[in-house]
Structures are given as C-alpha cells and as structure tokens.
Amino acid sequence: MTISRRGFLGALGVAGAVSAVPGNAQAWESKAPPDPFGCLVDLSRCVGCRKCEQACKEVNDLPEPAVKFDDLTVLDAKRRPDQNAFTVINRYYPGRIDDRDKLAPTFVKVQCMHCQDPACVSACITGALTKKENGAVHYDVNKCIGCRYCMAACPFEIPAYEYDKPILPRVRKCTFCFERISKEGGKPGCASICPVEAITFGRRGELLKLARGRIEGDPGKYIDHIYGEHEVGGTSWLYISNVPFEKVGFQTLPTRPMPQTTETIQSALFSYLWSPLALFGVLGAVMGATSRKHNKEGGDDA
User: Fold this and answer.
1) Which of 78, 134, 228, 247 has a CA positioned 20 to 30 A from the CA of residue 108?
2) What's the rounded mean pLDDT across residues 199-212?
C-alpha cells in the first residue's frame, strides 16, 4: 500500500476535523481590559519633528541613533522600529496638494499598537508577554526564552530581537512607558513632548469619543475611519487621518482578534485528547503501510 503526500495530509485533515466536533472546544473569551489607557494620533497634525523619537530614547535609555534627531533627511527612507528604536516617524506623499500647489507630506508615527487581545501574548509559550490592565503589552525578560514566536505572530511586525547580543538577547519593543503610567501616573514620553499635540493620551473610551468628535466636526477633512478601533479586535493606539490609511503604510486587517482563531483551533484540537489520539492513529497507519511495502519489496528482491 502506498500513501501519497496528498493522501497523508488529507488523513491529517480528517483527524483534525474529527477532533474538532462540536462540544470539544471551549468558547473563546476576550482577555482585553475594559477601558485601558491609549493614545490617539492625529496624522493631520504631525509635522515629522521626531521629538517623540527623542523622548522615547531618553525614557527607555536607548542608544544614540545613527542619524541625529534634528536631521530630517532620515525621513527619505521608510523605517521600522527595532531593538534600538521603539518608535519611528515615516514620511509619505499620498497625493495631497498643499496651499502652494505642491505635494504635501503626511507623517506617520509607528510603534507597538498594544492590541486589546495581542497575538504576541497568545503566541508566547512562557508568559513573558502579558496584557496589563493599563493597556500596555508588557515584556518580562526573566521569562523569555528567545523563541521569537511573538515576532512571527505580530500582525504589525513590531517585536525586534537583539541578534547582536549572543548572551542574554532580549525581545524589544515599545513599553508604553509602563512604569510612568502605572507608578508615576504620567504620560508616555512621546505623548508628553509632542509640540503640536498630535498625540493625545487618555482612556481608550474617551479617545474614541474624541476621535469621532473630530471626524464628525470636520467631515471634509478627516477620513471616516478610526484605525485601531476594530482592527484585530482593537488596539490601544488609535489613529485618525486626513488621507486614506492604505496610502500611508497602514495594513488592511480583519476585525477578528487573531488569538480568537488560533486559540479556538488549539482548544478544539487538544480538548479531551482527541487530536493526539487521532494523529497517532494516522501516523501508525502510515508507518504500518510503509513497513508492509518495504517487506513486500524485500521479498520480491529475494
């Protein structure tokens, strides 16, 4: 008996379907805090001064950047946060024309979105990442084993790894200034320093009201969309914009929290040991068929 690769995968699919019969999986429940802190970023106000980058470096004691903060030529290339920079500003030209009939830039602040139901937290097998009541997705270096599953899980591609530190490397990302918020009652460094008030810090519910108020108060200016209100179940960082989000680097993401899919599948597969038993049964059948085939071929050769 010969089992093809397609047949083997099909058998595994049947085993998974059997294991996921109704009643085996527990209903998924959101772990999002009811009204965490968050930040609202108004892209129509940001001027790309990079003051938020500078404040982030000072609060988190990060290394000096390769390009000084007052050198705006760094905006000529698109950047991502990394292990030495938890937030960056990017510049886009989405086609908007200013009063001088020139292309007007739009500046976008990028950092960890601190999702309501974070995929990185769900993927972390040691509990090194947790969603706190104040809204921060908090990282505990003492629990991290460097598996980097969080990096693969994050829909925004934010967590960075210290590949240049072979001894005790860490996963690095925006901390939401956790200590300042939780113990000092302050704001994140970036929200405190913004000279044009493009970043507003507060409770997520109040920020949503503020965002809707601005959109409804000036519908000719703002796009009727609060990015982060529903994306991947909602995020603590929210954005409003006077240009389409897809033109300034924002991904189009589903509203369903990613852990809702992955954790439901896991629960269905492993509840009552159905999945391991089904998998071992399929593997046993494959091994038995392969063994009989080899024995037959050996007899023919003899």
Assistant:
1) 134
2) 98
